[in-house]
Specification:
Elements (H helix, E strand, L loop, with lengths): L11 E2 L2 H8 L8 E5 L5 H7 L5 E5 L3 H11 L4 E3 L16 E6 L5 H10 L8 E9 H7 L10 H9 E9 L4 E2 L6 E8 L9 H11 L8 H8 L4 H5 L13 H15 L1
Helix pairs in contact: 1-2, 4-6, 7-10
């Protein structure tokens, strides 16, 4: 019998209604599918029923990989690796449709890695359908000027259109977690603000939101060495707080920071 490992943040999705909602959210037939964290394969089996062209699963846990090999090895390609150590751009020559019940302890790290590694408009996926802790999902989809708005909202909404599929109760998992979850769907934007190095946006938002309740003056001066011309150009009131600036302003600030360093 397979036991969930707390160290890997494992909670297996067992609710068939939720599984159906997830696999009904995008077209699967004749698509190349990547599933991250398949666990015992409940979602994988539902994906296979919809006649995909190919299914690749990435499972870090050795015991679960053996179980998947035993039950599904003729139908799926199983990669027994840590997703954080893999180059997602080299997983397959096809554009991937991605599903993931991401381990809660590294879900934001996975998402940020994928976003920061997108090369201009060369998306390696057409959709990401991902499960997060609800609290994290609320931060991802937050609008500016709200309490949940922050780094994750700004990074996620830069190149991706995001919507919620559903919230998921703890009883839909085994073992039962202590928190609610949410399933989000991400679709690539064809038009987005041009920033050459995404790590500049990551750095700027990290510094600005390090003290989210403080005024913008201090982090702005830290990034721009007290140069007030950029704040004037973008009409930024430095007495505001980080959550008061909209998405576009952060993207423009990142570009200005980039220009100063070039």
């Amino acid at each position: 019998m397979i036991r969930a490992k707390k160290s890997l943040g494992q909670n297996f999705l067992i609710d068939q209604n939720v599984i159906d909602k997830i696999t009904d959210s995008v077209k699967i037939e004749n698509k190349t599918i990547l599933e991250v964290g398949p666990g015992t394969g409940n979602l994988t089996k539902n994906i296979l029923k919809k006649n995909p062209k190919k299914v690749i699963v990435i499972e870090k846990d050795n015991d679960l990989s053996k179980l998947l090999n035993k039950n599904l090895n003729t139908e799926v390609k199983i990669i027994n690796e840590d997703i954080l150590n893999l180059d997602e751009n080299k997983l397959d020559i096809d554009i991937l449709t991605v599903f993931g019940n991401l381990p809660y302890n590294i879900s934001t790290e996975i998402l940020c890695k994928w976003i920061l590694n997108i090369k201009k408009q060369n998306y390696w996926f057409d959709y990401l359908v991902l499960m997060f802790q609800k609290e994290v999902a609320d931060r991802i989809i937050a609008k500016f000027d709200t309490k949940n708005y922050g780094r994750l909202s700004i990074l996620s909404n830069w190149k991706l259109e995001i919507s919620k599929i559903c919230d998921v109760k703890p009883s839909s998992f085994f073992p039962i977690p202590k928190i609610d979850s949410s399933v989000l769907i991400f679709k690539p934007k064809l038009d987005f603000y041009p920033i050459d190095n995404p790590k500049n946006l990551e750095k700027l938002t990290r510094i600005f939101f390090m003290h989210r309740r403080k005024m913008l003056k201090k982090p702005y001066n830290q990034m721009f060495n007290g140069n007030l011309e950029i704040a004037k150009k973008l009409k930024i009131d430095l007495n505001l707080r980080p959550q008061n600036l909209n998405f576009e302003t952060y993207y423009k600030l990142s570009k200005e920071y980039e220009n100063l360093r070039s």
